[in-house]
Amino acid sequence: MARGLPAVIGKRILLVVGGGIAAYKACELVRLIRGAGGEVTCVLTEGGSQFVTAMSLAALSGNPVHTTLWDLKDEAEIGHIQLSRSADLVVVCPATADLMARMAAGVADDLATTLLLATDKRVLAVPAMNVKMWEHAATRRNVATLRADGVEVLDPDIGDMACGETGPGRLPEPPAVLAAIQRLLGVGHGPLAGRHVLVTAGPTHEPIDPVRYIANRSSGRQGFAIAEAAARAGARVTLVAGPVALDTPAGVTRVNVETARDMAAAVEAALPADVAVMVAAVADWRSADAAPLKLKKDGSGQVPALELAENPDILATLCASPRRPALVVGFAAETHDVLAHAVAKRARKGADWIVANDVSGDVMGGSHNAIHIVTAAGTEALPEAPKDRVAELLVERIVDALA
Ligand code: C5P
User: Fold this and answer.
1) Does residue 2 carry a pLDDT above 60?
2) Residue 301 CA to ligand 1 centre (angstroms)
């Protein structure tokens, strides 16, 4: 087995190879899965066959490669329904914009899409496409639909692309894809292997009109660092992120949201989870009725009144939910009386722990943090450290608590 890579011993992967230049990396992925003890059967789309050959995939996988619905021998011997069910996990790599559009629409007009519609197994889609195609509203919609349908869609890497442009759209490197496969199969190493950790991070933006919003100084860094540390500990991690300019940590499934109400819905959709760490600085209030058109200064000196409405308390709602994770951790960012507020907040919200931090300095947006962990047993102070280190220490406490 390749050193340092997770084991998928005895697991069967059905790998759908779509039509994009990144298809050559699917060959490397086949090698990695087999090297980690897994078995791979490949399905090559017509587009995929323009970039890699069935012969390459057959040689690398050691299994026949399936390319068409209309193969009498294949249908007599296996049948496409059976093929779709025989795997432990279905992986689409690369998942092109077209393939994801057809998956989202439930189209079944070739072997790959028919298998994807017929399967009763989890599906992992690994996108690769031009940056404009990835950012196109149609692709955003399709990815959101697939995620809502339970498909695990990885975020593409950011960088230079074969077409000469730069941005998000590169296929994640095969070891990162293997790590995602391992997480979905629940066979990874690490003290949080097989656990689902839900993290919220960043601010929320509450629109006042189409161009203005209410926000706060949260950078999302502490929450992203916690998501990353949990993934490194082997957890399957869902990161519900408000608007921040941070890269998605390796192996983390990110759901982007804008408002508190979007965040509440995304948290609900991500359940069940074993642990929830609610780091987001959720706006307490939103504009009571956001204007559909930009508010204009009319020169009369009259200022518009901004009426506020209270946002849902995502943490308190989660704590009261029948699907409450076993361990719920809230954050308390305060500028004064930090510990007293944290102790009160723990009781008020029904959280197991409250992580208190003093944000009177430059913690919000800064790189360091000093926290207190308030639990039923008392309060533990951690020394000031970089946010990555704080995240590691918190994840260590979480591992201990679950054990
Ligand atoms: O109520 P307060 O903002 O002080 O509590 C902070 C904690 O509650 C954080 O964990 C934050 O993510 C969460 N919170 C929430 N929904 C809100 C406000 C805060 O989940 N509307």
Assistant:
1) no
2) 36
